[in-house]
From TrEMBL:
Species annotation: Candidatus Raymondbacteria bacterium RIFOXYD12_FULL_49_13
Domain (Secretion system C-terminal sorting) ranges: 258-332
UniProt KW keywords: Hydrolase, Signal
SUPFAM superfamilies tied to this protein: alpha/beta-Hydrolases
PANTHER family per UniProt: FERULOYL ESTERASE, UNNAMED PRODUCT-RELATED
Lineage: Bacteria, Raymondiibacteriota
Entry keyword annotation includes Hydrolase: yes
GO molecular function ontology, one term from the record: serine-type peptidase activity
Protein name: Secretion system C-terminal sorting domain-containing protein
Domain (Peptidase S9 prolyl oligopeptidase catalytic) ranges: 28-165
Top-rank taxon, per record: Bacteria
GO BP term, example: proteolysis
């Protein structure tokens, strides 16, 4: 309903049967089905090809990550929730935990993926972790529930590690702590920003690196559709959010808004590099339903008084009280900031 209300074209391809069938569980047929579904929608309605998104929960989270790597030329953004990234690791985890999931993986792959070479090859091609490195032209949001009793949080953390810069990856000890203690390791405390879409205490850990954001949330094997869809609504292909490399342009770009909370005006300041200033700056404001409420384009000529800082004033007199998202795009870089309008 959210997609309909927002004017999106929406399609939900059926699985190729339950997990455990050779033609399901991330098979080539599953991948092609989703590619064909996108092509069908494009043939029926006018689509912004920079805003084609993929989203999924559980098996759909696995499929979302798999499609992000295997069909990376399609997407403008991806949101994967509590999905499996490595089938062979999940096979071993299922045996250790005493669940029966390993049986489905063995049936889908045609044997034991640890000891049988043909089954291992099937597990490899069905595991997103081996293909996520291709997802470089769009942002991917990976979410894991700290209390998930179905898919260990390490499945999401390892997917993040594949995409992250070396200095941003999590250690084996940190990932093991998440799983065994169902808590954030002491070495990672203080990395839980407040996100109103997740609620108070909803985000336990969050980190962004290259084109990937990982969130460990206070919950189980579930999806927060409003958080996922609102985040997706801000994404565009070839506009990636990064926090990599000490000299990366993204580290030299920042947003401030004051006052915050505000009523009805707030001053938005954007710090940029010289190279970024030549491209101009696009500033958009969205409500939490992903609807754009204001657009501002800051031309490079407006840096004359302060060459390192651009500024605009948002007058929200025609908006109702609530939380809004400021989206700032400069070339391929995208940063966001949340502000609160209180009347």
């Amino acid at each position: 309903q959210w997609a309909v209300d927002s004017g999106w074209a929406f399609i939900a391809p059926n699985f190729r049967g339950p997990n455990g069938h050779p033609i399901s569980t991330g098979s080539n047929a599953v991948v092609q089905d989703i590619i064909d579904a996108v092509a069908y929608v494009k043939s029926q309605v006018t689509i912004d090809t920079n805003r084609i998104y993929v989203i999924g929960l559980s098996g759909g989270g696995h499929a979302t990550m798999l499609m992000s790597g295997k069909a990376a030329d399609i997407w403008g953004g991806a949101s994967a929730w509590v999905g499996v990234s490595d089938l062979t690791a999940y096979y071993q985890e299922s045996i250790a935990l005493g669940t029966t999931v390993w049986q489905s993986i063995q049936s889908a792959c045609g044997g034991n993926p640890v000891t049988d070479s043909a089954a291992a090859a099937q597990s490899y091609t069905r595991s997103p972790i081996h293909f996520l490195h291709n997802a470089v032209d769009f942002n991917i949001d990976i979410n894991a529930g700290i209390n998930d009793g179905t898919v260990p949080v390490s499945q999401s953390l390892r997917a993040f590690n594949v995409m992250a810069a070396p200095e941003d990856t999590l250690t084996e000890e940190e990932m093991a702590y998440f799983v065994t203690e169902k808590a954030v390791p002491p070495s990672l405390t203080g990395q839980a920003p407040y996100d109103p879409l997740y609620g108070t205490g909803g985000v336990l850990f969050r980190r962004t690196s290259n084109s990937c954001r990982i969130t460990v949330f206070n919950g189980g094997h579930v999806i927060n559709y409003k958080a996922a869809l609102t985040w997706l609504s801000l994404q565009r292909r070839n506009v990636t959010t990064t926090r990599t490399g000490k000299a990366d342009d993204a580290l030299k770009m920042g947003i401030t808004a004051y006052p915050n909370p505000f009523n009805p005006r707030t001053i938005i300041q954007i710090q940029t590099t010289e190279a970024q200033r030549t491209q101009g700056i696009h500033v958009n404001m969205y409500n939490l339903n992903g609807q754009k409420v204001k657009t501002e384009f800051i031309f490079k000529e407006r840096f004359e008084t302060n060459p390192a800082m651009a500024q605009c004033i948002w007058d929200a007199s025609d908006c109702s009280s609530g939380v809004y998202i400021i989206s700032v795009r400069v070339g391929r870089l995208l940063l966001t900031k949340q502000v609160a309008l209180i009347r």
